Amino acid sequence: MKAFVTRMVLPFALAITAASAVAGNAPRPAQSAVAGSEGTPTPELNEKWMIEGQKRYLINCGRCHQSPHLFSPRVMSMAVRHMRVRAMLTQEDMDYLLYYMTHQ
Amino acid sequence: MQNRFARACWLATACVGLCAVVAAQQDAAPPSVFDAKPTPILSGGVAFVPTWEAGDPTLVSIVSPVVLVPLGNNFVFESRAEFEGDFQRRQGNSGDFTGAIDKSLEYAQVDYIGNRYVTFTVGRFLTPFNIFNERLYPNWIRNTQSDPLIFPIGTGSDNGVMLRGGVEVGKDVTLNYAVYFSTLSNLNHLESERHAGMRAGIFMPHERLEIGGSVQHEFEDARFNRYGAHLVWQPQRIPFDLRAEGVYSHEEGNGLWAEGAYRLHNAGPAMLRRLQLVARTQLFYASTFTALNPDLPATDTKRTEGGFNYYLNDGWKALASYGRTFTPLGNSNIWTVGMTYRFLFPLGAIR
User: Can you tell me the ipTM of this complex?
Assistant: First the structure.
């Protein structure tokens, strides 16, 4: 037991810790890419984000299940957060998916 | 030595938690488009899937509610219970249907989304061994309704702690990982094994291909390892899903399954575009220690199934399938028909 945890699980957890501490405060792409000066996206950025969001939607959500209904941003925000944990989506996936699913 | 080991585990866990908190606090505020405050949700699935195995009917009825509650900006509470009634006739092929309703708490966990690379989970969670248990188990998601033969190996629910996440390591490569430790529990509806393990996978979005592996070490009386591998592929040009898993355990047995599903998206008649054709084949080779895991087949078993799913809308699915099971003790048919439904209701303000 000790050998397994010491050799495999513990170093893996520590490596994640170190990596996340060093790199975890990098800015989210959404912050620079979507928000305009007044917090609203420009038409070009909106189009870019919708295309990328749809692509990630098909790739990630469509791998396992059918399209869900469209719900309000508050419901979608909860669903995407849940799926980030369940389906191990990246932060980028989560941002693009939330944007796409609340702007259709 | 036990104390030193326990201290090391706690130190690692505390270290992870602290770094995640520090890193999260360094993130700047999100833009307004992401300011929507998440609201609690009641979701889940309902399934009625009568099955005839070797001629004996079983009315499989499942209700599986999921509750999601946001706790501040970075915490989430999520839970899923399952109520399953497998009703069988009193005299095999005659008499009324009877049976108990099996209740289980599949997960009840608090997630701390520390930063873009790590989520820290504590509580009762689905064992991240291969992918069927975590991603494909709900009836409204799975393409073939019966559980894979190898499903009882390494899966179920754990009580403990877990680190997990997904990271884009290149433009076309995403790495996902989960590492966990579970403690022993014999409490009714909250059973778990004492084991530790990890899973890692690489997803290539352009190729729509994911491959990964799992390893788990059992700390109970018979200490042993379990190994798993999984593959998911969805080619870009055709609406086809390929899913496969394999498991090796010297003590419990080994096997694999592979499933293909083709959705007739490009069919001429609109009605046919809702149809999905499915086929799955699987092998299981039993070990000599069959008593270790009574949920597994006692002998070598092969099973091949084929059927269809018909998506009435995004929530309702009708299905039917036929399969044949081959064992040294004899062969048998397995028929399934039924319906599944996925629901979702907000439990709080939606505006």
Answer: 0.81
